[in-house]
């Protein structure tokens, strides 16, 4: 598996962990990336892929007060995004807006819409309402879940409901079910826990150890993918939570993040601390929930690993598909290098 | 039919047709019908047809003259003249013949007339004579009739009397016969008298019948005794059986009784395979001989009992084989099996001699086939069981009982190779046996062995997989710590055992196989495919090794996690000593090194190490220098740039290389993974100066003991540096410890651990 000569690179100034696809931007393939530097002034980069698809350029550069541990672009407004940040001791979360005339300003400042105060522990991530324009947000820290109601025009956010994990282990991350907006999954050290947002109560729990990342299958209900530190990638069917429906070997070291492709069924991307991005193709064809009547081909005997992108110098923590051009993904390694790759050559084969 | 007739008509020649026409015209009731008959069709009834009745010569002539030329007419004339002459001759001949016949008839009549005269007189004379003869004979007959009647009556009475006399004498006679043991005569007499007894036994000869019945009862009893006594000669017994049969005695009952006795006697002839080893002619052999004798006798006595005897004999052999099969499953060697088979074979031969059409040898063959097959199968399964037991001991080991991995590995490899070879040798012994017992079994045996080997290795691999699958990733949570450790050991042993089987056992066994079991046509099952099995074990071995590494790194990772999750790193106090976690980490590594050393082979390519170390020292000094420099300058920006630059210039250390089945490779991989995890954990934290210094101190301390363990020092140093770099990056105030303090602390720790070592040992 050769390194990615096809990859388009872009360098952030500092180390970085998070990159997000700007879903609301339907005209361009755009990503937002935030840096992680304890001592320097951190930045948020608005990175755009040129229309020819051969170049990445910086569309906007904004300074951010603290190092960014999580960054998610708002799904319905391309100018809004959320960050989780830390000054080294305390954590905070905020919703930001990119100023309108940022191109003309010299050093544009981000407009803070509101900060999500109330967290005590380490904030892990912020989840936006998975589909369409909605005012609901969820923020997750190590022990609690908060459901927020955001009013962008009034620049306020209010806690609607809250629930604590009540577990000995700490929450490490989460995902909002795109098929059932009442369901949120949170990852623990030893399990995956689902919440019902309406009642803020726990529902299903799946036993699995060291879950680091979770992603719902965008097309199939009940299917979600988890990445675990040591035991690779597991694909689950929530109706059968005892055993995973499929296992993938993952990475040589920790598997850090896993992302399902928004368009192509069974195409999964994972990144890990072994400085590689792996592209998987799994066959989930025998699932009765499948909307398209694809015929089951005996592909599940072939190696599910289609390609390994190994042209990275450091651990990769940030990974996202582009929702506008679903064959493109952006990866962000710790040394601050954004690499955009196209998986077209591997998908068109199928 | 009609079409046939039409077809025939023109074939008839003219003459025959004419004759027929003439005849029909003669017999026809009236000539007018003729015109309608099929023969006189329209073409014949024309006046120009010479054969028709309506022939008109003039008309014919006219036509002829009109139609023919002169030449034709002349020809026709000649033809006709010849025809007329022919007809004339025919007519003359007929007349002449008829005349001849008439003359001869006249002559015959004349002769008959003269002969018939004078015959009447002779006939009358003859009649007279016959009449007189008849009257004479009648008179003689009447005169002698009375006397003849009388004589006949007397004769009948005399016969009757004699019979009566015989019957009255019968009891005495029978008694005499009993005394002289002339049972055959007695039976003959008795059966002779039987009809009379049947008719009059209830009335006139009542006493007599009773007496003779009593005598016969004695005879029957004696005969039965004779029949049942083994000491009597066979002929006598056979005779007795025959006589009993003649006496309408239910011989079949006797037969079944005898058969039962025979079967009963068989029950004592239990095959005791354990005794066969003591080569002395056992009681059983004698018993078998007796049994054969008995069968022989029985066959003579009851010639019609062959099928039953065959059944019994087969039953004996079947039972023998049942016992043999039981015996086979209790770990026997080939010689034992052969011994047993030989015994049964001899037995069947003996019986075969007595029972001609018994097909006992076929029966034996079938039994032997099953037994040998079972033997081969059970041998393999036994071996499988042995290996499994040997491996499972690792899990069951107690704290007290020292069952080291090394022993387990030794034992199991020995079992896998030596056991496999011994098995083959054993089976070879069977093949080499020349007593002719297994002649027909040779090919199947070869196939069984091939199949057995294939199955054996497949099952072994399955077994391994199931062992390793027993506890999966959650092992550390479900089981106690010691058990989890034991499990890791098991997986490691499995890995090495798989590698051993793939690299050593399979080729060796395959060699052996090729020598003694060159495969015939594979009728009985799949052959042994070493390539496939090797592949399987290779992948299994890699998998187990990976699993071992995973288990071990998971445990270390757990340690690290605890280490980094507990303290508040931002508010860390100044480092006073090397943290205890380092001890735990090293201890864990020590366990691993210990396990790995017991199980895995050393890397033969030692020279690699020296190269690596020289490279490492260089890069090491470079890095330390850089580190120092970096800590002095506080500009993180240039720091990062520097790191990148350094990475560019330094050869990229391959952290994640393929694991090999060597001590060094496995230890190195585990160390690398652990250090990498350490780096990742550090990156998730934020440190104050003291926290950073603690990390620095811990890492610095780790350097020396790790260097003793790992093979690739460069990679190890690089990773340790990486951890420190990560800590620097995540530190709010990254001022490293002064090297004298660092040294002091490390020395203190070393002294302390040395002290602990000496005090504990």
Automatic annotation (TrEMBL), chain A:
Record GO biological process: protein ubiquitination
Alphabetic keyword roster: Repeat, WD repeat
Pfam entry (one): Beta-prop_EIPR1
Annotated EIPR1-like beta-propeller domain residues: 5-280
Gene3D superfamilies named among the record's database cross-references: YVTN repeat-like/Quinoprotein amine dehydrogenase (2.130.10.10)
Keyword Transcription: no
Domain of life: Eukaryota
Coiled coil: none
Family: Belongs to the WD repeat EIPR1 family.
Name of the protein in its database record: EIPR1-like beta-propeller domain-containing protein
């Amino acid at each position: 598996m050769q390194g990615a000569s096809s990859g388009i690179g872009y360098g952030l100034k500092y180390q970085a962990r998070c990159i997000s696809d700007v879903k609301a931007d339907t005209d361009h393939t755009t990503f937002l990336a935030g840096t992680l530097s304890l001592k320097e002034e951190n930045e948020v980069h608005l990175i755009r892929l040129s229309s020819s698809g051969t170049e990445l350029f910086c569309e906007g550069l904004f300074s951010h007060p603290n190092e960014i541990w999580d960054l998610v672009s708002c799904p319905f407004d391309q100018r809004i995004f959320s960050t989780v940040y830390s000054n080294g001791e305390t954590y905070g979360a905020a919703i930001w807006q990119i100023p309108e005339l940022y191109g003309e300003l010299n050093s544009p400042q981000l407009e803070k819409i509101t900060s999500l105060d109330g967290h005590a522990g380490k904030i892990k991530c912020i989840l936006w309402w998975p589909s369409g324009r909605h005012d609901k947000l969820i923020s997750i820290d190590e022990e609690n879940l908060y459901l927020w109601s955001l009013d962008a025009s009034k620049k306020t956010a209010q806690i609607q409901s809250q629930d604590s994990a009540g577990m000995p282990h700490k929450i490490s991350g989460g995902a909002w079910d795109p098929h059932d907006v009442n369901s949120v999954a949170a990852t623990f050290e030893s399990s995956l826990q689902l919440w019902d947002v309406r009642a803020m109560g726990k529902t299903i729990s799946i036993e699995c150890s060291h879950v680091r990342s979770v992603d719902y299958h965008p097309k199939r209900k009940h299917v979600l993918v988890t990445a675990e530190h040591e035991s690779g990638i597991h694909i689950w069917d929530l109706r059968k939570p005892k055993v995973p429906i499929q296992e993938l070997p993952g990475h040589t070291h920790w598997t850090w993040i896993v992302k399902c492709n928004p368009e192509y069924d069974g195409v999964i991307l994972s990144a890990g601390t072994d400085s590689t991005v792996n592209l998987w193709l799994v066959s989930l064809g025998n699932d009765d929930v499948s909307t398209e009547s694809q015929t089951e081909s005996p592909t599940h005997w072939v190696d599910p690993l289609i390609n390994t992108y190994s042209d990275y110098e450091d651990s990769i923590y940030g990974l996202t598909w582009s929702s506008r051009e679903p064959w493109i993904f952006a990866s962000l390694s710790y040394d601050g290098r954004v690499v955009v790759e196209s998986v077209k050559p591997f998908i068109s084969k199928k | 039919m009609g079409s046939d007739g039409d077809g025939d008509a023109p074939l008839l020649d003219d003459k025959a047709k004419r004759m027929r026409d003439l005849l029909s015209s003669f017999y026809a009731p009236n000539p007018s019908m003729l015109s309608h008959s099929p023969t006189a069709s329209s073409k014949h009834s024309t006046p120009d047809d010479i054969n028709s009745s309506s022939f008109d010569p003039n008309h014919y002539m006219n036509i002829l003259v009109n139609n023919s030329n002169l030449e034709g007419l002349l020809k026709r004339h000649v033809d006709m003249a010849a025809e007329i002459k022919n007809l004339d001759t025919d007519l003359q001949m007929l007349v002449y013949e008829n005349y001849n016949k008439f003359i001869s008839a006249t002559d015959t009549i004349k002769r008959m007339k003269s002969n018939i005269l004078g015959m009447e007189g002779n006939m009358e004379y003859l009649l007279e004579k016959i009449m007189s003869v008849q009257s004479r004979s009648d008179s003689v007959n009447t005169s002698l009739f009375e006397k003849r009647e009388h004589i006949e009556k007397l004769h009948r009475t005399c016969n009757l009397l004699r019979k009566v006399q015989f019957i009255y004498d019968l009891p005495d006679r029978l008694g005499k016969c009993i005394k002289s043991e002339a049972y055959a005569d007695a039976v003959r007499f008795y059966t002779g008298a039987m009809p009379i007894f049947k008719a009059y036994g209830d009335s006139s000869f009542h006493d007599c019948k009773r007496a003779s019945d009593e005598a016969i009862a004695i005879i029957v009893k004696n005969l039965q005794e004779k029949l049942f006594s083994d000491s009597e000669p066979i002929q006598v017994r056979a005779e007795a059986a025959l006589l009993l049969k003649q006496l309408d005695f239910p011989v079949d009952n006797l037969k079944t009784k005898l058969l039962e006795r025979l079967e009963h006697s068989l029950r004592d002839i239990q095959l005791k395979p354990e005794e066969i080893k003591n080569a002395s002619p056992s009681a059983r052999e004698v018993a078998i001989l007796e049994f054969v004798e008995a069968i022989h006798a029985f066959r003579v006595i009851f010639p019609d009992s062959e099928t039953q005897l065959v059944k019994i004999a087969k039953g004996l052999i079947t039972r023998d084989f049942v016992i043999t099969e039981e015996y086979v499953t209790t770990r026997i060697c080939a010689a034992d099996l052969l011994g047993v088979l030989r015994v049964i074979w001899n037995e069947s031969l003996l019986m075969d001699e007595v029972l001609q059409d018994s097909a006992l040898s076929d029966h034996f063959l079938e039994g032997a086939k099953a037994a040998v097959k079972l033997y081969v199968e059970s041998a393999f399964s036994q071996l499988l069981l042995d290996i499994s037991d040997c491996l499972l001991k690792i899990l069951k080991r107690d704290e007290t009982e020292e069952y080291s991995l090394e022993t387990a590995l030794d034992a199991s490899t020995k079992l896998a190779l030596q056991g496999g070879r011994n098995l083959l040798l054993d089976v070879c012994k069977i093949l080499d046996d020349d007593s002719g017992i297994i002649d027909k079994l040779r090919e199947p045996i070869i196939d069984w062995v091939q199949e057995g080997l294939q199955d054996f290795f497949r099952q072994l691999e399955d077994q391994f997989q199931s062992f390793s699958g027993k506890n999966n990733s959650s092992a550390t949570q479900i089981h106690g710590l010691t058990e989890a450790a034991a499990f890791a050991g098991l997986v490691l042993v499995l890995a090495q055992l798989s590698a051993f089987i793939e690299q050593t056992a399979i080729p060796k066994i395959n060699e052996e196989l090729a020598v003694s079991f060159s495969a015939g046509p594979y009728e009985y099952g799949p052959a042994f495919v070493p390539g496939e099995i090797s592949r399987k074990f290779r992948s299994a071995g890699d998998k187990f090794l990976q699993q071992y590494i995973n288990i071990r790194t998971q445990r270390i990772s757990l340690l690290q996690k605890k280490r980094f999750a507990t303290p508040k790193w931002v508010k860390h106090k100044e480092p006073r000593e090397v943290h205890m976690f380092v001890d735990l980490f090293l201890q864990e590594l020590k366990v691993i090194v210990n396990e790995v050393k017991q199980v895995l082979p050393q890397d033969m390519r030692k020279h690699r190490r020296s190269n690596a170390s020289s490279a490492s020292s260089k890069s090491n000094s470079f890095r330390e220098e850089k580190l120092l420099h970096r800590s002095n300058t506080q500009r993180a920006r240039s720091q990062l740039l520097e790191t990148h630059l350094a990475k560019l210039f330094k050869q990229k250390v391959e952290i994640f290389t393929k694991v090999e089945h060597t001590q060094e490779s496995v230890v190195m991989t585990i160390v690398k993974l652990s250090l990498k995890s350490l780096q990742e954990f550090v990156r998730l934290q934020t440190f104050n100066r003291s926290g950073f210094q603690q990390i620095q101190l811990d890492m610095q301390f780790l350097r020396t003991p790790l260097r003793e363990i790992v093979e690739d020092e460069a990679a190890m140093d690089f990773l340790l540096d990486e951890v420190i770099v990560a800590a620097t990056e995540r530190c709010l105030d990254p001022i490293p410890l002064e090297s004298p303090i660092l040294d002091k602390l490390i020395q203190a720790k070393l002294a302390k651990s040395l002290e602990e070592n000496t005090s504990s040992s």
